[in-house]
């Protein structure tokens, strides 16, 4: 049977995260800093709304694009939080998580051979999704000395006449890097100059510390060439509800909706009712979670710096991406030995692309007590490596 | 800084001064000073531990008592409230609006002990007009903490 499989699927490598966590699941007493999802329960008002919709028997399909009320509330939210103007009827699509939105955008836009610029380290889905859609992923290695921001020079270096899409993913998983308005203005100039479409994954937009998230679509001349992917998983701790959305020019949203309607039909109805409550009435819950992450973030950074590992200060998402170069180990060796010797699971930076070599990803979506215990174990391990 | 300290401690009083200093980006000395001020001003009145006694071998009985009283001239309800909250069995006293005046929460080892307290100490107080005792059968949530909540981390390693 294997020879009958799609050639494309055969060449996609398995995820580095999966491989590693198969090891973790077999180990008792291991502390994991590996999970990329919030540790908070979905706020009760949101869950209650989901339950209520079920009680009322609201269990039928919704329109393919998602419930009008939800799309309307999403657009009001984007205006309120990020100064973005979208028409809820024609420029908004409710998807099954942000991941579906990424896949749809690539499939709606890419013709065979089109190049997709993907700054790396990055979320592991972009490359396979672009490849499966028939595109050629081209990675741009981001540099720690630039605080893992993307510079216009880097884009210029990798752009060709075949480049169609530039993927932006800030706040970033795994580095926690963010881009401010000035950074984005410069990237926008390059995108306009080379007529690039920007796929901007803003799933961590609500999790920024010290400064507010800016979307590239809010910069002049960019709305018409940007597709924003966002969702409820990270901000509202709703990973299992699988609720995401895409907003962008109707010329792209319409074909994305076409693919979505044949493949998925519509996002789950219960989740859509819960999402309406989330986006309308949960700002204070988001603020509370953000504050908690921020406190943990500081404790973690302090811990890594104390043990002598360089740690760039992430201003977004809930990950730390410390450098382990001083230990002389590769990312994989570090993560494997740390798990075996001290029972702490972190993700090797290389799981997010080759440019993640020399780094590890540590999620701080855990209690302060767990984080401190993990830090003390990592410190013991590192002290044996750095004299 | 004050409000932030209170917010963090309300969630978790085990947070150390070192952690507070890191989280709030202030010197440890300043945090310690502020904490001590908050304690002196009795804004922080104590550091309490919430224990689910039902999960131990120690048996405790909690009762909520509705008490109607006669307020005293010049002192309102305060004097009688003080008479009541001084008893060591009493863990909380609240002045209420509505059908009765004071909510008194008491803890004892047995129902008999609670009954004796109400019958022999609380009800005979001169200002107390009537009492209605309700025994707590099970605590589900206390001080904002869900007691039966499953704390196990059920997140799975998913890819991506």
UniProtKB/TrEMBL annotation, chain B:
Source species, domain of life: Bacteria
Chain ranges of the Transcription regulator AsnC/Lrp ligand binding domain: 65-138
InterPro entries registered for this protein in UniProt: Dimeric_a/b-barrel, HTH-Siroheme_Decarb, Tscrpt_reg_AsnC-like, Tscrpt_reg_AsnC/Lrp_C, WH-like_DNA-bd_sf, WH_DNA-bd_sf
Regions that span the bilayer: none
Protein's name according to its UniProt entry: AsnC family transcriptional regulator
Provenance organism: Vallitalea longa
